[in-house]
Amino acid sequence: MLRRLLAILLPAAFVLVAAVLAPLGAVIAQQQTQEVYVDRLGDAGRFASLAGTALEAERTNALVQEMARYEQLYGIPAVVVAPDGQVVVGSGEQDRMRALVADVATGGGITAALAGERPEPPTTVWPWQAEPLVIAEPIGRDSEVAGAVVLVAPTEELGAAILGAWGWMVLASTLPLALLVSASVPLSHWVLQPIRRLDAATTSVTSGDLDVHVDAERGPPELRRLTDSFNTMVEVVRRALERQRSFVSEASHQLRNPLASLRLSVENLAPYLDGPEAREAHAVAIDETTVMHRMLNSLLAATRLESVTGTEAVEVVGLVDIRVARWNALGESRGIEVTTDLPDHLWAHAPAGGLGSILDELVSNALRLSGGTRIEVRAEDGEQVRIGVLDNGLGLPEEEREAALDRFWRSPSHQNTEGTGLGLAIVADLVREAGGRLTLGDGLADQGRRGFGVVITLPPADPPVVRD
Length: 468
Known about the structure:
This protein is of the alpha+beta class. The chain has three domains: 2-161, 2-Layer Sandwich (Beta-Lactamase); 207-307, Helix Hairpins, CATH 1.10.287; 311-468, 2-Layer Sandwich (Heat Shock Protein 90). 56% of the residues lie in helices and 13% in strands. The chain has eleven helices and eleven strands. The strands form three sheets. The protein has a five-stranded mixed β-sheet. A four-stranded antiparallel β-sheet has the order 2-1-4-3, sandwiched between helices. A two-stranded antiparallel sheet has the order 5-7. Strand 1 (78-81) and strand 2 form a beta hairpin. Helix 1 packs antiparallel against helix 2 (61-74), helix 1 (2-57) packs antiparallel against helix 5 and helix 6 (221-268) runs antiparallel to helix 7. The two termini are 32 Å apart. The mean pLDDT is 80.
């Protein structure tokens, strides 16, 4: 998260600095161009004055010598152009001067100077441009223009000067940029620290730890308020769950004694009943109290099962091996054999501390409801871990399978069988919260019976790393 935040802040800082440096660099380039232009314009004005005198006296030798020394000293050719555009004199050979004027004549500055007007100042010279700076100054004014002085100044030194100024500017900007970058790291830590704590606390809550508390004393005020709200929310959820579970557990416990007394009182009425109708009503009352007693036990078991929260990596094969002996002991009393078909090792993400209870519930349902003689617990590895509890009993019609996952639903064929219809629905919810799914289908086909199967699909998990 810190890297992502810095990846946003640092480019933004560089863009901000660039947004300041770009116009400043343009101003520097424009200023340097204007300074060079003013210097060359002064030189062109001086040559125009000398050229006016020399052309009027028809003595140009001194002017030519002055131009030649100027080019030798500054490397800037100087040319005097007649009103018809022909080269009169220059700082070098006539052919070179004619070619030079022909190269720069397209800009329009010479034409404006020959018309008696001073050309517009040049635009900003950029370091990557190779075009020379052309300065044209009229000789004379208005209708008395006798020609124009043209200076063709190379821009290499000007470009180098601008680059040097930009370099110093960039170098000077590195200090505030470095301060900004160095300040962004602790600032990011300060901003993200509460978010990290909230992330860790959220992970703990997801894993079922509702006693988590996040420190709300550090970080920005907005995040501190968010942390306070998170702590309050977790506390409210924890208390609500505790009250719900306590109510179910305490209500079930509190109802046991009155229900036991009621059943005892009903049974004690047997010697005082006369007639078949009274005895039949007496038997129905005893059966109803028995069903209520089983319901209370199931509610207590469901409360314990629903207390499972979060996920953990579980070694499925070892978990099943520990329980299979107990399942077989329970099956012997009903004439049912429990077998397993397992790979060597298999790890899955399962409800924390609850996969064993889930399998106990599924096997218990199969023992009570299947009416078969065999139950098989299977486990398969792959992209998803599949754990199935299958029997060879009568099975469940397809039209009833969707309803079988509803709470308190009982199949019409199992109305007189022990159970409440809660276990399978709670198991399906727990598996779903662990990132898996529960499906119902056929089981072990045997002698025309299709059986019934419950298959749990869970995400695979890597074995924990054992450190020496």
